[in-house]
């Protein structure tokens, strides 16, 4: 914690010096939201069936008078009724960006997204997953970084220096989506002797070639996905996170061919304690516009997830999955959207249903509905499904947010 604080103070001083000569007449915006989750089955560990939380996410943006630099500050604060680990605070963005005609330079805490697929983002490696926010892996912790971007005719080159590793968040013993054994987040172990002090690095080239958007990247550093090692302590048996070092090379491609989007993400991954493996997700999204002159656009999504490992680092059987879904955009004044998807793995045939819907209410309010439904998990085959420990955690979530 002290080391994180030192990094944060150092970055703040750098940004303060960078902005000492300009006026801070910027813009505040953000949202505050109330979230309610209703679980459909009884919990395995006597947790509640209803979960409520309050989220506050303010953001400050300032553009310099010369339009040559930008300061961005955004934090997330959540208070949860059930899980103390989900009640947390995180700096999502605290960065200073300056730029010229063919370059950009950013320093601070920030978020970077890589990826094109709908069902999984294999190539998205820069930021750590914030696993207490949602189980879909879309929420990320802020990452300290120095980022140089070169904009050239032959493409865009991004170079990253990444100090200050962020450990993954995990639900607590009173939360849902928890492991059967407590995850000891206070005593994580590292393969590297530098631990959280190790400096990671990444480089990515991206370019648009006609209808094709292509990205090639390489990351070298501490794995964002820990191995959970059963460990006997004075408190009993716990799962201790172990973060190995790894190298990942990736390719992402999106082709926009008329009304069809073709998408592919491929990674090859290796480390000192990990045999090299290859994983991929790819498919297409086919769009029907203005269906029956209703003004509604419908997209049909089909993707396949492939992984050539037989067993992952935590001992679960790795299975390929088929993902099918549909996206509805109503193109109305309230920006109504609806998404439904189904993932079925190849052998165990577990079903994971994902439903998301949202609609604006007036100029400042938005209501969001989510459902995560886990079905057909064979309790006699616990290591055949990654959903086994959360098989009774299907839920429906309603969130009402006020934007300012």
Compact description:
With 404 residues, this protein is mostly beta strands. It has one helix spanning 2-18; strands at 27-39, 50-63, 69-80, 88-99, 103-110, 143-152, 155-162, 189-190, 200-209, 212-222, 227-233, 236-243, 245-257, 260-271, 274-288, 297-307, 321-329, 337-345, 351-361, 365-375, 395-403. The protein has one domain: Porin, CATH 2.40.160.
Overview features:
18-stranded antiparallel β-barrel; 404 residues; 4% helix; 21 strands; Porin; 3-stranded mixed β-sheet; 1 helix; mainly beta
Describe this structure in words.
4% of the residues lie in helices and 53% in strands. The radius of gyration is 22 Å and the shape is globular. Strand 14 (260-271) and strand 15 form a beta hairpin. The strands form two sheets. The chain has an 18-stranded antiparallel barrel. A three-stranded mixed sheet has the order 8-12-11, with no helix packed on it. By secondary structure, the protein is mainly beta. The longest helix has 17 residues, at 2-18. It has one helix at residues 2-18; strands at 27-39, 50-63, 69-80, 88-99, 103-110, 143-152, 155-162, 189-190, 200-209, 212-222, 227-233, 236-243, 245-257, 260-271, 274-288, 297-307, 321-329, 337-345, 351-361, 365-375, 395-403. It has one domain (2-403): Porin, CATH 2.40.160.10.
Topology:
Elements: H1 2-18, E1 27-39, E2 50-63, E3 69-80, E4 88-99, E5 103-110, E6 143-152, E7 155-162, E8 189-190, E9 200-209, E10 212-222, E11 227-233, E12 236-243, E13 245-257, E14 260-271, E15 274-288, E16 297-307, E17 321-329, E18 337-345, E19 351-361, E20 365-375, E21 395-403
Parallel strand pairs: 8-12
Antiparallel strand pairs: 1-2, 1-21, 2-3, 3-4, 4-5, 5-6, 6-7, 7-9, 9-10, 10-13, 11-12, 13-14, 14-15, 15-16, 16-17, 17-18, 18-19, 19-20, 20-21
């Amino acid at each position: 914690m002290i080391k994180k604080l030192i990094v944060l103070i150092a970055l703040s001083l750098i940004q303060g010096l960078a902005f000492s000569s300009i006026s801070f007449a910027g813009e505040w915006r953000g949202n505050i939201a109330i979230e309610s989750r209703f679980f459909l089955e009884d919990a395995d560990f006597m947790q509640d069936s209803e979960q409520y939380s309050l989220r506050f996410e303010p953001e400050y943006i300032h553009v310099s008078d010369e339009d040559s630099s930008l300061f961005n500050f955004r934090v997330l604060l959540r208070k949860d009724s059930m899980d103390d680990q989900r009640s947390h605070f995180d700096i999502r963005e605290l960065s200073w960006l300056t730029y010229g005609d063919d370059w950009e330079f950013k320093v601070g805490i920030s978020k970077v997204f890589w990826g094109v697929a709908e069902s999984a983002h294999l190539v998205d490696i820069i930021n750590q997953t914030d696993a207490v926010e949602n189980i879909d892996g879309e929420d990320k912790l802020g990452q300290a970084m120095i980022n140089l971007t070169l904009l050239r005719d032959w493409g865009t080159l991004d170079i990253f220096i990444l100090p200050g590793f962020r450990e993954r968040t995990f639900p607590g013993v009173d939360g849902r989506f928890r492991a059967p054994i407590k995850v000891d987040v206070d005593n994580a172990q590292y393969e590297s002797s530098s631990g959280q002090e190790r400096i990671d690095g990444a480089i990515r080239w991206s370019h648009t070639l006609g209808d094709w958007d292509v990205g090639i990247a390489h990351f070298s550093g501490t794995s964002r996905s820990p191995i959970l090692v059963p460990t006997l302590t004075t408190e009993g048996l716990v799962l201790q996170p172990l973060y190995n070092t790894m190298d990942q090379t990736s390719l992402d491609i999106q082709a926009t061919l008329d009304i069809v989007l073709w998408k592919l993400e491929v990674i090859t991954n290796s480390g000192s304690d990990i045999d090299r493996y290859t994983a991929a997700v790819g498919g297409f999204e086919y769009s029907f516009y203005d269906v029956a002159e209703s003004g509604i656009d419908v997209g049909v999504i089909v993707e396949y997830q492939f992984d050539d490992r037989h067993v992952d680092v935590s001992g679960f059987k790795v299975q390929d999955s088929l993902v099918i879904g549909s996206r509805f955009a109503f193109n109305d004044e309230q920006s109504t959207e609806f998404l439904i998807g189904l993932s079925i793995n190849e052998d165990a045939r577990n079903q994971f249903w994902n439903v998301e819907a949202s609609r604006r209410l007036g100029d400042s309010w938005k209501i969001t509905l989510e459902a995560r439904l886990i079905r057909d998990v064979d309790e006699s085959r616990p290591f055949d499904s990654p959903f086994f420990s959360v098989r009774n955690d299907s839920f429906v979530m309603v969130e009402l947010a006020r934007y300012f």
